[in-house]
């Protein structure tokens, strides 16, 4: 990623509306009367499930992908100097800025009916979601950002330990739910979409085939991916030039950036 300047701009969580007013507006306003503006890099990573959620819901939205030049020039206000960030615009000039992928995804999922039918289902869906999210984080730290000389060993270890345990554990829970393509009950949820999104992410890394072959070995896990493939609300999005651009740019990004030069890694340690 490009580096932001020291005086990078920030957005604040303070608003001209009171917290009660924002909560009331959000509770009382239909999704069709909101506008969602998501900013994220043109890659498959922590912000890519939010794109799927917006497309699934068919709400009015824009996806902004700031250029590295704008990022380095300090033209992108964030909360924590990273993306994704989400701006939600509603009636009475209400605008709220949100940060952190997990918060954005669960906020959107709740609005779009993807957090189950009750508090228990919501908690269970968020549990699976969180664990899926964590797999992506571990794939970065354990394989992608590893120094060249350690890459093969690290990847083998990721496959034989982290990914294997993830797949075994998720296969268990999905079989417990009846191996029906869903994590919870028989309804599409954030957990299903997130799993499918992470499979797509793995399809864009340099060792994609190996990773997908592993996923395919687990019947119930793969069934979730296939079930999401059949979600018609996502057809147009997946066929779009925009989606293809994100996909190609992701493949390109991971191919170029997953090789960490030894010296860069040493400098980080010092
Ligand atoms: N905890 C944050 C992490 C977000 C994050 O690491 N974003 C990366 C891209 S995946 C980023 O924007 N990096 C820009 C930079 O480090 O300059 C979240 O889950 O949203």
- Silhouette: globular
- Please provide the ordered H/E string of secondary-structure elements: HEHEHEEHHHHHHHHH
- What is the CA–CA distance across the termini? 21 Å
- Broad CATH class of the largest domain: Mainly Alpha
SS-based class? alpha+beta
Multimeric organization:
single chain
* Overall residue-averaged pLDDT value: 94
Unreliable parts: none
Strand order of the largest sheet: 2-1-3-4
- Ligands (ions, cofactors included): glutathione
CATH architecture of the largest domain: Up-down Bundle
CATH T-level fold name of the largest domain: Glutathione S-transferase Yfyf (Class Pi), Chain A, domain 2
GO molecular function, one term: glutathione transferase activity
Domain GST N-terminal: 34-116
Domain GST C-terminal: 118-255
Protein name: Glutathione S-transferase
Task: Report on the architecture of this protein.
This protein is of the alpha+beta class and 270 residues long. It has 2 domains: 19-111, Glutaredoxin; 119-262, Glutathione S-transferase Yfyf (Class Pi), Chain A, domain 2 (Up-down Bundle), CATH 1.20.1050.10. 56% of the residues lie in helices and 7% in strands. The chain contains 12 helices and 4 strands. The protein has helices spanning 19-28, 48-57, 68-72, 101-111, 119-144, 151-176, 190-202, 208-216, 219-229, 235-239, 241-257, 262-269, and strands at residues 35-39, 61-64, 85-89, 95-99. The chain has a 4-stranded mixed beta sheet, with helices on one face. Helix 2 (48-57) links the parallel strand 1 (35-39) and strand 2 (61-64). The longest helix is centred in the middle third of the chain and has 26 residues, at 119-144. The radius of gyration is 19 Å and the shape is globular. The two termini are 21 Å apart. The mean pLDDT is 94. InterPro entries: Glutathione-S-Trfase_C-like, Glutathione-S-Trfase_C_sf, Glutathione_S-Trfase_N, GST_C, GST_superfamily, Thioredoxin-like_sf. It comes from Linnemannia exigua. This is Glutathione S-transferase.
């Amino acid at each position: 990623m490009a580096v932001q300047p020291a005086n990078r701009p920030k957005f604040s969580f303070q608003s001209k509306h009171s917290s009660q007013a924002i909560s009331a507006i959000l509770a009382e306003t239909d999704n069709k009367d909101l506008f969602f503006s998501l900013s994220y890099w043109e890659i498959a990573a922590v912000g890519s499930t939010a794109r799927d959620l917006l497309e699934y819901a068919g709400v009015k939205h824009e996806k902004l992908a700031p250029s590295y030049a704008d990022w380095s020039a300090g033209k992108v206000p964030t909360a924590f100097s990273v993306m994704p960030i989400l701006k939600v615009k509603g009636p009475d000039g209400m605008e709220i800025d949100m940060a952190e992928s997990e918060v954005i995804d669960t906020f959107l999922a709740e609005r779009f009916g993807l957090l189950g039918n009750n508090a228990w289902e919501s908690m269970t869906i968020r549990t699976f979601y969180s664990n899926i999210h964590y797999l992506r984080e571990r794939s970065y730290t354990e394989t992608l950002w590893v120094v060249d000389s350690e890459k093969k060993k690290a990847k083998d270890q990721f496959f034989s330990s982290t990914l294997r345990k993830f797949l075994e554990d998720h296969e268990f829970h999905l079989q417990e739910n009846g191996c029906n393509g869903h994590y919870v009950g028989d309804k599409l949820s954030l957990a299903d979409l997130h799993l499918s999104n992470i499979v797509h992410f793995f399809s864009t890394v340099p060792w994609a085939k190996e990773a997908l072959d592993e996923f395919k070995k687990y019947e119930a896990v793969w069934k979730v991916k296939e079930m999401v493939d059949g979600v018609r609300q996502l057809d147009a999005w997946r066929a779009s030039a925009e989606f293809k651009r994100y996909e190609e740019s992701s493949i390109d990004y991971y191919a170029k950036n997953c090789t960490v030069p030894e010296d860069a890694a040493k400098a980080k340690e010092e």
